[in-house]
Input
Amino acid sequence: HGDMIIVRVDPHLVITDIQGDSREILGVEAEELCGDSSIWAEFVHAEDLRRLVKIIRSGEGAPVEISEELRLVNRKTLEVRCFLIKAVPLYTENGVFEGWEAFGLDITDKKQTEDELISQSRRIEALYEVSRSLQVDVDPAQVALKGLRALISATSSNCGYACFYDRESRKIEIVAAQGL
Output
């Protein structure tokens, strides 16, 4: 299946078994993934790997269940995909920890849609702020400043400026600046 992968690892995070299309998802054959605990650095985004290691170490002797979103990098195409990872600790009949079994589900499309919705929401907030300021202020410079602040917020920018352009004189007048 191209959008899901199931992995079993030992207590040292060495992959012992893998199900799913690792070649499509990670750009690596399943056989290449097994037997090497350092293989994770090759396809888990560095920031996510550090976060994951921190979670694993926080178990204080008792392995914890893991539910995280990770970015996985395809070794051949370098495409980054987002996966929801769920890992549960495995124990023998005698209660001895023997590793984790984890599944990863590709949620890249969901993440992209969420990001687009957040961006659209910020733009709508900016438009609303400008339209609201028109009801209170009639001074074009004040409206431009409020609109500029709303746009800076909507685009997560650090600074910006707004200008008026006089077509007759062909002059530009800066009427609002923020963060410059």
User: Anything to note?
Assistant: The chain has a mean pLDDT of 88.
